[in-house]
Design a protein that fits this description.
By secondary structure, the chain is mostly helical. It contains 15 helices and no strands.
């Protein structure tokens, strides 16, 4: 079913394979065993060009990260998508790791990957509030947009951390109803991903629930993709959208709910016709 364009996951790619050193991602005992073997390659690139120390940074494992550094891991390497070690550390959210990277001048705080995402965008996208605030205090640029015209508020609503969203709304001039390349608004992301607290905050601050994306999906289509019953109930009771409205592919919100396996949501919509 075509509801909307496939979104780019706002994070460095997950590595599903790679050299044996990657298998130690969450296991320090195994990692130490690998270091003592003869076939180790500490800077080996796995799938998508990801190195073992990137795994440690992404997992927020500062002890493992320090062991990799002590063993000679190169923290200046970029993966195949242009993500550097600070991008990965921002996903992991460990501020200790981030402080080390910045102190070594190995990555710019406003560095951008192939999708033009900065480390603070990734911290927001994963709801890593400590990492987000650390980068803010380092002077990151919160006005930068990614290659799909998502701004920092879009990313924060994707991540679902209400404290990050509150900070952005109170401290930056971002438009609460800003649109990306596909005419998606921040509240659409919150509805789709079931972030009820963020959704409520945006509605309270003036989020427009009557907008449509570039293929005609309304906010109810998005809520039915995620399947959060409380958000759907709110939209139905507020009568802000046509529950029988069809997107550009001819699908109603109830059809979208069915497609995504949210049978109870579909039944709720049909019962209120």
């Amino acid at each position: 079913m075509h509801m909307q364009p496939e979104s780019q996951t706002p994070s460095p790619d997950k590595d599903q394979g790679g050299h044996n050193v990657h298998d130690a991602e969450n296991n320090l005992t195994a990692f130490k065993h690998i270091l003592s073997s003869d076939d180790k390659d500490i800077n080996h690139r796995g799938q998508n060009g990801k190195t073992a120390i990137m795994c440690a940074a992404q997992e927020g494992n500062s002890e493992m990260f320090e062991l990799f550094v002590a063993t000679g891991a190169d923290i200046s390497i970029l993966d195949a998508g242009g993500n550097n070690i600070l991008h990965y550390a921002s996903v992991g959210g460990d501020v200790k790791i981030m402080k080390y990277i910045i102190s070594e001048h190995k990555a710019s705080i406003n560095s951008r990957d192939e999708y033009q995402r900065t480390p603070v965008v990734l911290a927001a996208s994963y709801g890593r509030v400590d990492a987000f605030m650390f980068l803010v205090n380092q002077g990151v640029d919160l006005t930068l947009k990614d290659a799909f015209s998502n701004n920092i508020l879009h990313s924060a609503c994707y991540g679902g951390n209400v404290d990050i969203v509150k900070y952005i709304l109170s401290q930056t001039p971002v438009n609460i109803n800003s649109i990306d390349k596909f005419l998606r608004t921040p509240v659409m992301w919150a509805a789709q991903l079931g972030h009820k607290l963020v959704f409520d905050l945006l509605v309270d601050r003036g989020g427009d629930l009557k907008l449509h994306d570039f293929v005609g999906n309304n906010i109810l289509h998005y809520a039915c993709t995620g399947g959060d019953m409380e958000i759907v109930k709110y939209l139905l009771s507020s009568n802000v959208v046509d529950r029988d409205g069809r997107n550009g592919y001819g699908f109603t919100a109830s059809a979208v709910a069915k497609h995504h396996g949210h049978g109870s949501v579909q039944e709720l919509i049909l019962s209120q016709r």
